Amino acid sequence: MVHYRGALDGAETISVRTFENASSQPNAELMMTEALRKEFLRRGGLRLIADSDRADLFVEGKVLPIVTAPRSFSSIVLALEYEVQVAIEVQVRRRDGTDLAIDARSLGETEIYLASSDVEAGRKNREEALRRISQILAGRVVDAIYLDDVEKGS
After folding, report:
1. Which of 21, 105, 145, 150 fits 29 for a cystine, CB–CB 3.0-4.6 Å?
2. What is the rounded average pLDDT of the residues 92-107?
3. Helices 119-151 and 28-43: crossing angle, nearest 10°?
4. Model confidence at 71, in pLDDT bands (50, 70, 90)?
């Protein structure tokens, strides 16, 4: 069982700044920021606040360039599936300016989605894959924050 309350040296509040978007995917930064905020709300250990200057902890980051490539093909050389790879950079800082360690190796994920001859359906499939990746990465960031605390013996 994971106990979130009282962890992180008594930190009670966290602010998640809107991520920077270094990808060509419109709104990727908003998708990642929203997923991270929802994950903190879902777990309930820290109160999410908007003002990062008043927060005990704040998170900021960047969505790196997103790579999309065909994964499987039909017999007439049409892509049936695509693979999308997303990586992020994240910094978690305490109010006193010290950083919490986040292992960068855990901040990337790949998802496969179905291709479609319908442009709108293909776009929706890709967007849903990106949303799933955002949720996975958000969970890893929150896990890493509490793991750092556990490893320090708090």
Report:
1. 21
2. 90
3. 50
4. confident
Query: pLDDT by residue (tens digit) across 23-44?
Result: 999 999 999 999 999 999 998 8
pTM of the model as a whole: 0.88
Q: Residue written as tokens 């496969």?
A: 112
Q: Which residue matches tokens 């292992």?
A: 103
DSSP letters of the chain?
Answer: ----TT-GGG--EEEEPPPEE-SSSTTHHHHHHHHHHHHHHHH-SSEE-S-TTT-SEEEEEEEPPPEEEEEEE-TTS-EEEEEEEEEEEEEEEETTSPEEP--GGGSEEEEEEE--SSHHHHHHHHHHHHHHHHHHHHHHHHHHHHHHHHHTT-
Alpha carbon 108 to its chain's center: 9
Distance CA 146, CA 78 (A): 45
**What is the DSSP pairing of strand 13-16 with strand 47-48?**
parallel
